Automatic annotation (TrEMBL):
CDD domains: HNHc. It comes from the Bacteria. Residues 191-249 form the HNH nuclease domain. This is HNH endonuclease. The keyword Nuclease applies. Keywords: Endonuclease, Hydrolase, Nuclease. One of its GO terms (molecular function) is zinc ion binding. Coiled coil: none annotated.
Length: 276
């Protein structure tokens, strides 16, 4: 339905052909087996803090701006998407009215926590645990007898560049349990970090300088995802670069951050061509 990394005008290019609520963070078209999820930094002022966690799972805040959230409407649609044979599609806002397609997702569960609503009153919110797939199906691999537990993550440091790339593109076996899917997400995110640093050969892919220092596990470089939502989470190697701390901060906070990130996208694509 959508191309990963491509921008769409929300009203005309998403809701035009598929329907669904054109406002809000969760949209549930009646005539298609889909749930559209939208995330934006602007939502934080209303208590909607969405973020990737260290285990590779994306925490997405449910809908409802005032009072305790209820497990109904969009929230229920996310939680029960698998039971209802509906696919979650995730988008992030890039500018007003425009969103970038991130990929499909599976809800692995949720937890509840207390946060302020838009009026500043404390309320109960739902935080859904989404395993977002930002890799084209054709690129994915499933390891034979795949098992992605803690021992397998430790073994990543002994893998070759080619093996790390394969691990970064791994997917859960068909019919895998929720626990297995969580382990796969973590395994994939850790493999991606190791792969990108190994691909860089210890050289910052932003400025071309050597890593500022060496650690026990190799050169100190930080992984930067050239698309905001994927920052810190799983994704395709062609969307990630290894940066020195200065370039990493520049990519996030500099006045020329947008143009710098556009340049990093080209660098990442070229680095992948040379690595293959």
């Amino acid at each position: 339905m959508f191309e990963i990394g491509k921008e769409y005008k929300r009203n005309t290019e998403i809701h035009g052909p598929y329907g669904g609520q054109a406002q809000g963070g969760i949209s549930t078209p009646k005539n298609f087996p889909v749930v559209f999820v939208f995330t934006s930094d602007a939502g934080e002022q209303h208590g909607y803090k969405d973020e990737y966690r260290d285990d590779g799972i994306f925490w997405y805040t449910g809908e409802g701006q005032v009072g305790d959230m209820r497990m109904a409407s969009g929230n229920k649609a996310i939680l029960e998407h698998a039971k209802n044979n509906k696919t979650i599609h995730v988008f992030e806002y890039t500018k007003k009215a425009f969103v970038r397609y991130i990929g499909t997702a599976e809800c692995l569960g949720y937890h509840e926590e207390t946060r302020p609503d838009r009026e500043g009153d404390e309320r109960n919110v739902f935080v859904f645990h989404l395993d977002i797939d930002s890799v084209d199906t054709a690129s994915q691999v499933t390891e034979p007898s795949a098992s992605y537990g803690p021992k397998n993550v430790k073994g990543l440091k002994n893998k070759s560049l080619k093996e790390l790339r394969r691990a970064a593109l791994s997917s859960s076996p068909t019919g895998a349990s929720t626990k297995s899917k969580r382990e796969t997400a973590y395994y994939r995110s850790q493999a991606l970090k190791l792969y990108v640093v190994a691909r860089s050969k210890g050289i910052c892919e932003g400025c071309g300088s050597g890593a500022p220092f060496q650690t026990n596990s190799g050169p100190f470089l930080e992984c930067h995802h050239v698309h905001r939502l994927a920052d810190g989470g799983p994704g395709h190697p062609q969307n990630v670069v290894a940066l020195c701390p200065n370039c990493h901060r520049r990519a996030h906070f500099a006045k020329d951050a947008i143009s710098f990130n556009n340049e990093l996208k080209k660098i990442a694509l070229e680095a992948e061509k040379n690595a293959l």
